[in-house]
Write a structure and sequence with these properties.
heterodimer; A: 164 residues; 5 helices; 16% strand; B: 273 residues; alpha+beta; Uridine Diphospho-n-acetylenolpyruvylglucosamine Reductase, domain 3; Enolase-like, domain 1; five-stranded antiparallel sheet; binds flavin-adenine dinucleotide; binds FE2/S2 (inorganic) cluster
Amino acid sequence: MVIKLKVISFTINGEKRQVTMRGDERLIDLIRDELKLTGTKEGCGQGECGACTVLVDGKAVPSCLMLAVKVDGKEILTIEGLKRNGILHPLQKAFIEAGAVQCGFCTPGMIMSLMELLSNQDEVTPEEIRAHLSGNICRCTGYSKIIDAAMLAHKMLKEMRNHV
Amino acid sequence: MFNVVAPENLQIAIDILSGENTKVIAGGTDLMVRVRQGMFKPDVLVDITRIRSLRGIKKTDDHIEIGATTTHSDILKNPDTPPLLKEAVSKIGSPQIRNLGTIGGNIVNASPAGDTLVPLYLYEATVEITGKGTKELPIEEFIKGPGKTVLKQGEILSNIRIPILKGYKHIFHKVGERDAMAISVASMGILYKTDGDILQDIRVAFGSVYPTVIRIKEVEELLRNQRISKDILIEASKIIEKNVKPISDVRATAMYRKKVAGRLIFRLLEISR
Ligand SMILES: Cc1cc2nc3c(=O)[nH]c(=O)nc-3n(C[C@H](O)[C@H](O)[C@H](O)COP(=O)(O)OP(=O)(O)OC[C@H]3O[C@@H](n4cnc5c(N)ncnc54)[C@H](O)[C@@H]3O)c2cc1C
Ligand code: FES
Ligand code: FES
């Protein structure tokens, strides 16, 4: 069989890119190996842990289960894209402030999942946060600080919205 | 290694799929795991998620039609989604899996634990197959066994049609090792209609306790036009244990599954309270 390389165009963290990928390469391979954005982590590689979560067209997806060529024409957001003009995103600040990071391996995935939730909802409860993080596993924190961080970020985002 | 094509046109997809060692990929949440484990070595994957006509939810006078590549998240968000289907879909995997995974992929997987199947059997949904022509089949005839459907090379599942049932309520219960991400050990769905405290109509189906999802008509007949009582449910429970044929696997033993299935029917006591 002839393996054809495919040229794909997409936007990642606001920047337009064009790369050549093999059909069997995954989105996480594109992000980590091709674009060298190593903030996104691979844990299980099977959709179970959420460490590899990124946003594609605003939806949180496990990048270990998605073929890279599927993002042709789409918009990707990874943890590296949250910072604006050198200033951390409220979610990143809240994780630091609440002490929600220990080894940090799950953190980018947690934050990207929460990005999806908090960008789409004006009001959110701790129960909704727990439910939304059901696909993200953390081996260190016991989760409660992560829920605290999410509630804090929610508060910060709400204040920002009320100021504009 | 394999190539991926992503046609926007259904007919082109069908033509490519008639070739040897080609396979459909929708969300990929099942296929990717299997391909990476080497359980399956395709030459060409046909990504059908760019075909507009296969995606979305439509309401007609008496049916809800769901395109095969509609994701679980889109099904959850749609106000027209039949309530029992909505509840079952909300229990699938995690938000990330639901954003990628599709209803068509869940059906074609034909897993006895497939969470959309219990509702689809109960609503008596039909599925549309597109190949050289199109045909429509009841879901129970589409699924042949664990991982087996009637689909042939060059055919895809294109659409799902669910009759709208008025005045029915539902129960859905999934028993798993934990709340999220758990493939069910046993699951039960019920659609019922009451007249006072009499069960006017009832449909009962189980997942994960038989080679396919299974409706137990004998239990439905026993309970129809009856008042719910502990005694009648004990009888129903015995019929269920007699009808299921579970397997033992990493998640549970056959005996445990049989007992759980039998006990689940007691959830009906809730409606008599
Ligand atoms: C972590 C994890 C948790 C999960 N939890 C659950 C759960 O709780 N409940 C549950 O039911 N499932 C679960 N699944 C399984 C899976 O996510 C679902 O079955 C999902 O709906 C599959 O859809 P897909 O679009 O991703 O399928 P794909 O992986 O794209 O396809 C699956 C199979 O169907 C074929 N196919 C897909 N669409 C079509 C079509 N339209 N026509 C013809 N063939 C087609 C493919 O060729 C392939 O053989 C889980 C999976 C993972 C990885
Ligand atoms: S690495 Fe993708 S979900 Fe675990
Ligand atoms: S902080 Fe270590 S896995 Fe979550």
